[in-house]
Each structure stands twice: as structure tokens, then as C-alpha cells.
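Weekly modeling sync, notes
Attendees: AB, CL, MP (scribe)

Item 1: holo prediction request
CL wants a bound-state model with adenosine monophosphate before deciding which constructs to order. AB pointed out that an apo prediction alone won't tell us much about the pocket. Agreed to run with the ligand included and paste results into these notes for async review.

Input as submitted:
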Amino acid sequence: VEQYSTVRALREAVQSARRAGKAVGFVPTMGYLHAGHLALCAAARRENEFVVTSIFVNPLQFAPNEDFDRYPRDLVRDLGMLQTAGVDAVFTPSVTEMYPEATQTVVSVPALSQTLEGKTRPTHFQGVATVVLKLLQIVRPDTVYFGQKDGQQVAVVRRLVRDLSVPVTVRVVPTVREPDGLALSSRNVYLEGADRIRARRLSQSLSQARSLLEAGERSGPTVQAELERLLTEDPDIRLDYAAVVNADTLVPLSHIAGPTMLAVAAYVGPARLLDNLMLDVSERAVRDLLPPL
Ligand code: AMP
């Protein structure tokens, strides 16, 4: 894998791949890679002749009280993993390379950004949308890959790509989990001992909610209340939200039908954890919204 730290060098590498007729796939990350990121890289590898991964911890999407400074980083290990994954190019810009001056121009998708995560993190998705559009302008991929794990991010990115006619195909890859169900996350390193065991409850409560749907329940408030009950059974879990929303608009569903996201966020020890299920719900059936890869 070739490493590029400047916009100019990365652009030259992508341009020569493109001139050679190669389809370009792009996987944006914040590094500290795990099997979830590698699933995105594998999907990109299957579908493109040239794969670019970026590693950039984007200050714009962290609030001042958040973990920007202590966000885990290990570039040497990441490069080894990307090498094994068969990625062609890794873009590792510094903060000053990406933002030589404080950015004036921002991208915001307010209706999708203020709900769910946005209640706790009101500036987060503007930072995400801005860096995603900027990275897409730098790399100019044919296809960009995101994880279902960050379900609201998927909704925001899809909407920004549509609204601004960004010439890219967005692909979403199902969440990769630990054997006990915990969704992989770079922030899982904050979990130790009892908290690591406790953290199972997020995915467990989601699968119990799915069982309710499979048994015929279609009331959004009922399923939401059940998620809240299951999560708060453990007094050492501090619930942020449990929600039953349309997967595209993020609007809460009173009657559950169509593309549905069951989303939870909770504090477990020092970690703030997220998880979701994306389901396609009809009167008679409940299916996964994303086809397994
Ligand atoms: P991050 O480095 O946390 O910004 O994540 C980079 C990309 O990897 C995002 O599109 C995430 O949604 C995706 N991702 C993170 N964790 C997982 C996971 N457990 N399964 C699938 N994709 C993931």
C-alpha cells in the first residue's frame, strides 16, 4: 500500500489509476482499524480496480468536550492491516493539510443532523458532512463505502450526495460484530472488565426488539419503550436514546413499516456506544434492509 500525505500526491495517484481505466473505490476512516473497516475495504476491493482508504481524525466533527485528543491512533498497525487487505493507496493528511485555514464553507443537512446523535452532538454531522464532501472532492471515487454501524451518518451522506448531485455511488456495508454481538468500534478500547460484558446489552436489546417485530408488533412507541426498558435494566448503563425511525428520513415511526432503523446510544463506563438494526418491515415479514455481502 502506498501512503500519501498531501492532497496533490493523492490526486496524482488516483488520476493515473483512472487514466489506466480503473474504477476507484474509497473508504474514509478515522483509523485504529478493525474488522469493520476491513469489511468496507474488502467490498471496495471486490468492486474496484483501485482502492483508496483515508485515515483522518477530523477535528470538525468533535465538540470541544469530546475525545479528539485521546481518540485511539496507531498508524503503523493500520498500514499493515491495509497492506494485507490489498488496499492500493492510503491518504493520511495532517490537520493542516486538510484545513490550512479555518474552513469558512460548511455542509449541513439540518433535519437529519439534529435528531438522535444530534441531540447530544449538535455540531457533529456538519463536521462529518463537510469532511466527507471534501474527501470526495479530493479522491473523486466512483464508489464510496460506509458502515451501517453509523446509521445516521449513512442517512446524512446519502442525502448530501443527492442534494448536491455528487457524482458518486454510496454503498453501505452491514455491521461487523464480535462473537457476543457487540458492534466493532475503535472506541471499544475504552471498555474494560465488567463494562465490556455490560456492552453486550446494546445488541441484545436490539435483537429482542427485532423478535417483537417478528412476532407481529408494529407500534413504534411500544418497541421503543421495550428497548428503553431492556437497556436500563442494568443501572450501570446510562441510556442516551432508543429510537424507532424511518431509515432514510430518521422520522420516528408510529406504525412500523418500510425501511426502519432501530437505533440505540448509551454510556457504558467511559464509552459512549452506538448500535442499530436496519430492517425492511412489511405487514407480514421483517427482513434485513442491507443484503449480506
Ligand atoms: P470510523 O473510523 O469510526 O469513522 O469508521 C469508518 C467507517 O467504518 C464508517 O463508515 C463506519 O460506519 C465504518 N464502521 C465502523 N465500525 C463498523 C462496523 N462494526 N461494521 C461495519 N462498518 C463499520
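Recorded for review: The mean pLDDT is 97.
Action items: CL to compare against the apo run; MP to circulate these notes.
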